[in-house]
Amino acid sequence: MSAAEGRPIRVALLGCGTVGGEVARLLTEQAGELAARAGAPVELAGIAVRRPDKHPELPPELLTADAEKLVTSDDVDVVVELVGGIEPVRGWLLAALEAGKSVVTANKALLAEHSADLFEAADAAGADLYFEAAVAGAIPLLRPLRESLAGDRITRVMGIVNGTTNYILSAMDSTGAGYAETLDEASRLGYAEADPTADVDGYDAASKAAILASLAFHTRVTASDVHREGIADVTAADLAAARMLGRTVKLLAICERVTDDDGVESVSARVHPVMIPRSHQLAGVGGAFNAVYVEADAAGELMFYGQGAGGAPTASAVLGDLVAVARNRVVGGRGPRESAHAALPVRPMGQTPTRYHVSLSVADRAGVLAQVAQAFAAHGVSIAAVRQSDVGDRASLVVVTHQAPDAALQSTVDEIGRLDVVHEVVSVMRVEGEDQ
Ligand SMILES: NC(=O)C1=CN([C@@H]2O[C@H](COP(=O)(O)OP(=O)(O)OC[C@H]3O[C@@H](n4cnc5c(N)ncnc54)[C@H](O)[C@@H]3O)[C@@H](O)[C@H]2O)C=CC1
Ligand SMILES: N[C@@H](CC=O)C(=O)O
Ligand code: NA
């Protein structure tokens, strides 16, 4: 008997939309190859969807609206969850794990809040919890963090982890396309979340940052620990200000291990729009693509790039996980458990060192520059570069700072906005990817 003829691994698929539909298709089309790789046939035992009558393309005998019953069925070994959201999915997955089923999920929102409970349930039952698709779609990123880099000390994870917002910012920057029409297009292409405010307001990227920081720093980091700003306030003026300086705007997730002057370590995790030089590799990442840098003591800098959203790319990551848990079942082993032993504190955003780009419209007269410079000095913020150009009876003043605690930079900008000589604060954005 060949390995692929071992007892079938029976799969409950929860959700058959953008991602689930592709998983069901590939599971069927590639059944032979998947069986050979897993060491046993991988078969669908049932598919739970909200409205079975809306799925004439699927075998009716597999369809059910009762996910709760399906996940604990004796006929199921592995639950693949592609519904999304926290409730009722959390309850289904806990029940599945408690019943000894392994779980594969793409649900970053759930993992960023409840991975500790899910890992505990998996541990108690000796089951697996895999979630490669939850961050950066097709890109193998979580397995490298959990396994390949398990012997190294990661210091930084930074990158573009939301395809929808990258699609919007790329279009605004390259063609001047409007925000709303580009968001509609991202939804039509299957990139956006069911509620796209999760994308544009940065919730999706913040969930991913929490997952990345947890794995990279062996610490439980939840979405509420992540400083979050979305792209809703990024204007054409911000993009123009960036362009004038040879920069562009990206929504970045930045997770760092920070050591203070006393040698005390903490973790910082944030998601916000950032100006980066056009020469930076992240600036060239367009459309729904994602790219993530990982810096580790021994490995140095690593970069992961590929499709971060969409049905088929995300299904690729789901199926990779499914083969992994099926293999584990066949040989009686388990994948990596939760690693949270470092338990580092999370540093508040106000204390996190950042750099700002501030673009102002000011009165064109003597002493203005000195007043603005004085406001920065008063908050202990050092200026790296200033550029002034005349525009009629006003002047355009661009200031780029050195690193300072984010709270000091915020207070400086508030004070500058109140100066009589400042007509308008045109654009304020953090800067990354340049010397500090
Ligand atoms: N679309 C993408 O590019 C990516 C999505 N994800 C994640 O994958 C998951 C699924 O996303 P999509 O496929 O885009 O969503 P979708 O909205 O296209 O599909 C959701 C599916 O869940 C089913 N469903 C909803 N409520 C249900 C209920 N109460 N009982 C049974 N079935 C129910 C729906 O019938 C539908 O088949 C989400 O967690 C999402 O965050 C992760 C990476 C990329
Ligand atoms: N809505 C998400 C989908 C993938 O995680 C995104 O746009 O990146
Ligand atoms: Na991934």
UniProtKB/TrEMBL annotation:
- Residue numbers binding NADP(+): L14, G15, C16, G17, T18, V19, G20, G21
Keyword Oxidoreductase among UniProt keywords: yes
User: Which family does the entry's similarity section mention?
Assistant: Belongs to the homoserine dehydrogenase family.
Q: Which PROSITE patterns match?
A: ACT, HOMOSER_DHGENASE
This entry's Enzyme Commission designation comes to 1.1.1.3
Instruction: From the Swiss-Prot or TrEMBL record, give the protein name.
Output: Homoserine dehydrogenase
Organism field: Amycolatopsis australiensis
Which InterPro entries does this one have? ACT-like_dom_sf (IPR045865), ACT_dom (IPR002912), Asp/hSer_DH_NAD-bd (IPR005106), HDH (IPR016204), HDH_cat (IPR001342), HDH_CS (IPR019811), NAD(P)-bd_dom_sf (IPR036291)
* CDD domains in UniProt: ACT_HSDH-Hom
* Domain of life (superkingdom): Bacteria
Q: Where do the TM regions start and end?
A: none
